[in-house]
Amino acid sequence: MAKREGRCRLCLKNGALSKEHVPPKAAGNCGRVRTSHALDFIRDPSTETGRILQNGAWTYSLCEECNGLLGRHYVPEYVKWAKWFLHEYNIWVPGLVPVYLRDVYPLRFLKQAVSMLFSVNGDEFARGFEPISSWVRSPEARAWHWNCRVYLTLAHGNVGRGWNLVYRGGKDSAMFTEIALTPFSVQLVLEQERDDRPGDITWFARYGYNERADLCFALPCGFLASAVPAHFASPEEVERARAKARRIREDESRGDGTP
Ligand SMILES: [Zn+2]
User: Fold this and answer.
1) Distance between alpha carbon 130 and the CA centroid of its chain, in Å?
2) Quick one: pLDDT band at residue 195, thresholds 50, 70, 90?
3) Angle of helix 64-73 relative to helix 75-87, nearest 10 degrees?
4) Residues 197/217, Cβ–Cβ less than 8 Å
5) Of the residues 29, 179, 190, 203, which has the maximum number of CB atoms within 10 A of its CB?
6) pLDDT digits (tens, 9 = 90+) for 115-131
7) What is the Å distance from ligand 1's center to 125 Cα?
């Protein structure tokens, strides 16, 4: 396995980092993907360049120990869910959709989902959220920090997103981080006490590591067509917004050039 020296973004130990797919390769992260980076997007909101990877999105973010722990304890559950949504689920309509999952381990799915957000963020994230990184690294741990909420959106499209902490303004302002690749977008929102929003799966933390359940709930469903974090507009809407941004830039450049 390819290796690189560095600091693990989950346990913060220095040493050999292993190359890993985030999300897991078997969870659909194996085709040609475009990952749009935050800075590229800020420079040019209509960017279509991003980074094209031919065999899924991967990174050097975790040490072998953490990588192995996730692989043993959580990845199989995450992959099982992803495969089910990719191959069996058939209610892909924008909006809130019903989901029925039989005989699953909710806590294992949640821990894998949250671990991927540590990979997306730098090691300062693990320093800032040490209790959450400990919670990920201890399969049996159940003490979640309830002012951090985890959201799941069913999403499909040809864009992959990995956003480290960003601030969303407006009346629903929040700091959040996201990882998105068909069929899921996972978002961790900080300092948010309300738990009645669609897609909130923070309650999975109430299950035990070995606790199975039949789940019946509703999830938001949308498209992955845009680089904007937690944005699920359709390809047509994204194209309209791009065309508008192009027109504005063209008008501006014409304005600058006119004496
Ligand atoms: Zn580690």
Assistant:
1) 19
2) low
3) 60
4) no
5) 179
6) 999 999 988 999 999 99
7) 13
* Nearest of 79, 84, 77, 94 to residue 139 by alpha carbon: 77
Rounded CA separation 123/223 (Å): 30
Q: How far is the CA of 122 from the centre of ligand 1 (A)?
A: 13
Cα 255 to middle of ligand 1, angstroms:
53
Contact 67, 10 (CB under 8 A): no
Ligand 1 center from residue 8 Cα (angstroms): 5
Distance from the alpha carbon of residue 7 to the mean position of ligand 1, in angstroms: 8
| Res. 153 pLDDT band, cuts 50 70 90 | very high
pLDDT at 214: 98
**200: nearest Cα among 180, 181, 219:** 219
Domains of the chain, residue spans:
75-257
Instruction: Quote the pLDDT of residue 102.
Output: 96
Helix/strand/coil for 65: helix
Question: Rounded to an integer, what distance in angstroms lies between the CA atom of residue 83 and that of residue 88?
Answer: 8
